[in-house]
Amino acid sequence: MFPQFDESVPPNSTAVAIDRDKNSPHAVRWAIDHLIISNPLIILLHIRQKYNHQNSNGGYVESDSEMQQLFTPFRGYCARKGVLLKEVVIDDNDISKAILEYIGRNLLSNIVVGASTRNALARKFKGVDISTTVMKSAPDFCSVYIISKGKILSVRTAQRPAANTAAPPRQPSPGIPPQIPSDHGELDDPFRGQGMRGIPRGLATERLSWEKGSTPIRAAAHDRHRSSPSTLALDTIESTLPGRRSTGRDSFSDESDYSGPLGMGSLDISSKNLDFSSVPVSPRVSSASQSSRDLEAEMRRLKLELRQTMEMYSTACKEALNAKKKAKELNQWKMEEAQRFEEARMAEETALAIAEMEKAKCRAAIEAAEKAQKLADAEAQRRKQAELKAKREAEEKNRALTALANNDVRYRKYTIEEIEEATDKFSEAMKIGEGGYGPVYRGKLDHTPVAIKVLRPDAAQGKRQFQQEVEVLSSIRHPNMVLLLGACPDYGCLVYEYMHNGSLEDRLLRRGNTPVIPWRKRFKIAAEIATALLFLHQAKPEPLVHRDLKPANILLDRNYVSKISDVGLARLVPPSVADSVTQYHMTSAAGTFCYIDPEYQQTGMLTTKSDIYSFGIMLLQILTARSPMGLTHHVSRAIEKGTLAEMLDPAVTDWPAEAAESCAKLAIQCAELRKKDRPDLGTVIVPDLNRLKDLGRKLESNKSY
After folding, report:
1. Pick from 355, 384, 408: which residue ends a domain?
2. Please, where are the H alpha helices in 82-210?
3. Catalytic machinery residues
4. Contact, 109 vs 42, CB < 8 A?
5. Tens of pLDDT, residues 312-365
């Protein structure tokens, strides 16, 4: 079926070349989504090829039922999209040529072709694919789109608008019968009735069949001339052909007069006795034109092969460069891995060396501990001989020391039964106080008076961590710190030495009608507290911060020797519980809130300077025996006005004015709001308080003489 001019196709239409390949559906969908805008009509063009040799079934590769199956999915899709569909089937063995001639004769503005599914190497050996040929040879008024998997693979836009050069067939000359009877339908529109492909039945030999590979038109015309009495002029023949553009290739004589098969097909007119004797032929012009076309085709083929070869060479070069780059990266990675392996090996050797050093240090420490243990045993033995009256107590201590040596534990472990027996099952009568961390009971263990502090349940931690922390606390030894004698890890009980004179707070406020503390002892207590605090701040490997320094945590023995209690107790409780201790006594007369470092409250950064602030407030209380609330401000105003004597504790009648004022100024410096303005404990505070303590000692010795 020749791709002739179709009057039902409007100018500037869009066509899609379809086949049974996988890219045809993608091409149709893309054309409907992007090109069908103003003209809702799409032409589906299919080229049906014939066999190389005719067979009994008609010689076509595809049957009518197969054509039905080919167009069926596209009809449904176009119906859903609201697009008009025109189906065109052309019988030709040269697919590219049939598509190009249909474009030229119907002035299509867009042609969409699915990309070839073969790779570049297969196209090189099997010839140029259809999409490439259409791209190269399509008229310049038609835009060509190559679609692959729903995306544009290649595009060539039109260079000019299409001129309406297509003309309807000429009217036959007078006296010539019509070319096809009207009852057989139109030749230029073979797809009638719901867009179905097919030639009208009954047409038989009266149809115009343009098929590649058929008998040349010149010979066919000559045979008809011998068997028909009638003749047919050239104008009559041209009137039966579709309208063509007026170019050199469109002359009938150029394409009909050559020895081989006609490139565009043959004209079969069997029922009409037509005479071709008047048709002029020009073998020389036809041969030259055919040679020129063959040469141009060969040149295009060679150029295309050269370009494909260059593309393959470029691809190979790129792959070689990428392989070289990957090899270089792999070598670099290998070198880096080797370097990392060497570094890991060196690090392992260094770690092993450090571990050996630590083992040596550990052995040295064990030896030192053994020596110390031996010295302790000797000292205990001498003490046993010196204290005959305390023979039983010495035996208990030796037993405790023996247990310490066997278990390698630095504190005595008590059972809950021993604690309950010592406190009369935590009787209220044995209760001597209530601290921020829990109640305190008086008791007797190993025939020694002790104070037992029971931590609150919300402050309890794991047994193992509790033991570790208690070992740290029990290793702290200083004359001015309450000694931790042992603990009951299972129930969070701490056993301290018992202090007979209670807390400094109770003695300053003279609770229980206790005697007044003289100013000399007050200076001595302040110096002792500062010395013990310096010892804590210089602890190794890390300094210990008390966090809750106040008169209630300073205990006094029979001789008014001051000792700091609850040292490091903040390590045994979570930070939330330790911080809540400051809120525990807010309603009391001397609430803990007043002793907290303001900068620590704002930033949460706890340093040794925080203890110095608390020590400054406590030092002012030692001088005044007043509540800590606003005490710094009142003492500062009194010093400015010269009325410091009115602020001092009136129970002491013989305050040394100069020494008291020096001590008050030192306390105010310690209570500065910014920690960087507070004096150093070791270089300023301790020397000044030791000087005041020595002053009181000298005055007391002079008075005794």
Report:
1. 408
2. 95-106, 120-126, 130-137
3. 548
4. no
5. 999 999 999 999 999 999 999 999 999 999 999 999 999 999 999 999 999 999
Q: What are the tens digits of pLDDT across the range 488-520?
A: 888 888 898 999 898 999 999 988 889 999 999
At residue 97, the 3 state secondary structure works out as helix
Could you tell me what percent of the chain has a pLDDT over 90?
A: 39
Other beta carbons within 10 angstroms of residue 14's beta carbon come to 22
Cβ neighbours around 3 below 10 Å, total: 25
Domain end point (choices 166, 192, 217): 166
Q: Kindly indicate the confidence band of residue 689, based on its pLDDT and cuts at 50, 70 and 90.
A: very high
Query: Is residue 661 one of the residues assigned to a domain?
Result: yes
Average pLDDT over residues 618-631: 94
DSSP strand pairing (143-148 vs 110-114)? parallel
Residue pair 552/590 in contact (Cβ under 8 Å)? The answer is yes
Pick the closest to residue 70 from 28, 39, 132 (CA basis): 28
Question: Counting every residue, how long is the chain?
Answer: 705
Amino acid code (one letter) for 344: A
Phi first, then psi, for residue 484 (nearest 5°) are -85, 115
DSSP calls for 176-231: PPPSS-GGG--SS----STT---PPTT-GGGS----TTS--HHHHHHHHHHH-S--
Least confident of 34-38, 97-101, 570-574, 668-672: 570-574
Q: What is the dihedral of CA 576, 581, 587, 592, to 10 degrees?
A: -130
Q: Report the SS3 class of residue 565.
A: coil
Over residues 632-656, mean pLDDT: 93
Q: What is the pLDDT of residues 139-189, one digit of tens each?
A: 999 999 999 988 888 899 988 887 654 444 434 333 333 333 333 333 333
The answer to whether 266 and 297 are in contact (CB under 8 A) is no
What region does 452 belong to: left with phi over 0, alpha with psi -120 to 50, or beta? beta
Contact (CB, 8 A) for 83 and 40 = yes
Contact 523, 563 (CB under 8 A): no
Q: In whole angstroms, what is the distance from residue 115 CA to residue 131 CA?
A: 6
Cα Rg for the chain, rounded, in angstroms? 58
Q: How far apart are CA 211 and CA 244, in angstroms?
A: 18
Q: Is residue 466 part of a domain?
A: yes
Backbone angles phi, psi at 108, to 5 degrees: -70, 140
Q: How far is the CA of 572 from the CAs of 46, 494, 500, in angstroms?
A: 90, 11, 26
> Coil, helix or strand for 88?
strand
Beta-ladder partners of 152? 147
The answer to whether the pTM exceeds 0.90 is no
* Side-by-side strand order, sheet with 493-497: 412-413, 484-488, 493-497, 448-454, 438-445, 431-435
pLDDT in tens, 49-58: 875 444 444 4
Domain housing 471: 414-498
Q: Could you tell me if 449 and 565 lie in one domain? A: no
Contact 198, 190 (CB under 8 A): yes
From residue 605, alpha-carbon distances to 105, 344, 478, 579 in Å are 91, 37, 27, 13
Q: Are strands 14-17 and 41-48 parallel, antiparallel or unpaired?
A: parallel
d(Cα 181, Cα 619) in Å, to the nearest integer?
131
Same-domain pairing of 551 and 470? no
Is the four-CA dihedral 285, 288, 291, 292 of positive or negative sign? negative
- Count of domains for the chain: 4
CB-CB contact of 141 with 158 (8 Å):
yes
**460 and 530 within one domain:** no
